[in-house]
């Protein structure tokens, strides 16, 4: 068995119905030999070295009287969960777009492994299991789940990642301009207040300051959002454009339009950090998942877990 997704070879005959993996999950019982960091996301030699390392460590622990822990695997389009079979506590949650390589032992029929990129450290970790002669079936189930997850990703908007990225960039720029516009208005208001204070101190005692609208340092009538605007034209002969009101419920940008959420439209509902998630999933699915059948038991010691 040697197949690749997002590449030339694809395995089309799957073991489970799409509904079983998309609406539910497929459970498997296995023994968990552990996980170890590897330098590459793919490669038969990479997983072979990791399996030998973990088997040797497990052999040492077994000689000390420690048993290999049992786990339950729940495989679906949302990932591969590793749980305690009794308490159902999730020990590891490996998302499918982070799994890059999956292999089973074609001679032992028990050992299988996969490489997954850790969500926190971004390191590649190799997980190794003893599955009671179900290694190939579990490997194929992970492959089918990956295939379905990738299709769902495309249907929910994955094709438009670049377009969404550009829209998000424009939206961010609009917010920056709006902030800059607000800061400039505040500075102008401060200068106007300083000018009024200076005029008050400079006026003769007993004199009355005219009530006509004063002008700012740009010789323009200052705008007050509370009182209606004056119809008196400014010196440059243009009427100041009306500034849209800002209600407490709806915030508008400097063009008077409601902020556009590029991710509220479309087939899928996404979390607030949609852009980073989409980029991460696009990168993971683009790398693809490689399934291989190989030989891990290279000497008598390797065959004992």
From TrEMBL:
Residues 226-238 have a biased composition (Polar residues). Residues 160-201 form a coiled coil. Keywords: Coiled coil. GO terms for biological process: phagocytosis, engulfment. Residues 28-156 form the PID domain. Residues 222-247 are annotated as: Disordered. CDD domains: PTB_CED-6. InterPro entries: Adapter_Engulfment-Domain (IPR051133), PH-like_dom_sf (IPR011993), PTB/PI_dom (IPR006020). It comes from the Eukaryota. One of its GO terms (cellular component) is cytoplasm. PANTHER family: GULP PTB DOMAIN CONTAINING ENGULFMENT ADAPTOR 1, PHOSPHOTYROSINE INTERACTION DOMAIN-CONTAINING FAMILY MEMBER. This is GULP PTB domain containing engulfment adaptor 1. The lineage of its organism: Eukaryota, Metazoa, Chordata, Craniata, Vertebrata. The gene is GULP1.
């Amino acid at each position: 068995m040697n197949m690749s997704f997002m590449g030339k070879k694809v395995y089309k005959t799957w073991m489970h119905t799409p509904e079983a993996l998309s609406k539910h999950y497929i459970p498997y019982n296995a023994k968990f030999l552990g996980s170890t960091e590897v330098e590459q996301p793919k490669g038969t030699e990479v997983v072979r070295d990791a399996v030998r390392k973990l088997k040797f460590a497990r052999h040492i622990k077994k000689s000390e009287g420690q048993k290999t822990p049992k786990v339950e695997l729940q495989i679906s389009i949302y990932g591969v969960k590793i749980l305690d079979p009794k308490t159902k506590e999730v020990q590891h949650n490996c998302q499918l777009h982070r799994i890059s390589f999956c292999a089973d032992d074609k001679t032992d029929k028990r050992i299988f492994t996969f490489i997954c990129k850790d969500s926190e450290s971004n390191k590649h970790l190799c997980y190794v299991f003893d599955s009671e002669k179900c290694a190939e079936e579990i490997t194929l189930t992970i492959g089918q789940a990956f295939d379905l997850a990738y299709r769902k990703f495309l249907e929910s908007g994955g094709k438009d990642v670049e377009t969404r990225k550009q829209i998000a960039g424009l939206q961010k720029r609009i917010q920056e301009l709006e902030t800059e516009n607000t800061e400039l208005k505040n500075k102008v208001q401060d200068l106007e207040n300083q000018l009024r204070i200076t005029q008050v101190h400079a006026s003769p005692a007993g004199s009355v300051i005219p009530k006509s609208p004063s002008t700012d340092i740009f010789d323009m009538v200052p705008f007050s959002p509370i009182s209606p605007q004056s119809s008196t034209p400014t010196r440059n002969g243009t009427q100041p454009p009306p500034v849209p009101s800002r209600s407490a419920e709806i915030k508008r940008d400097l063009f008077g339009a409601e902020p556009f959420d590029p991710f509220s439209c479309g087939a899928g509902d996404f979390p607030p950090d949609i852009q980073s998630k989409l980029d991460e999933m696009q990168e993971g699915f683009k790398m693809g998942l490689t399934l291989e059948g190989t030989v891990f038991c290279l000497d008598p010691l390797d065959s004992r877990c």
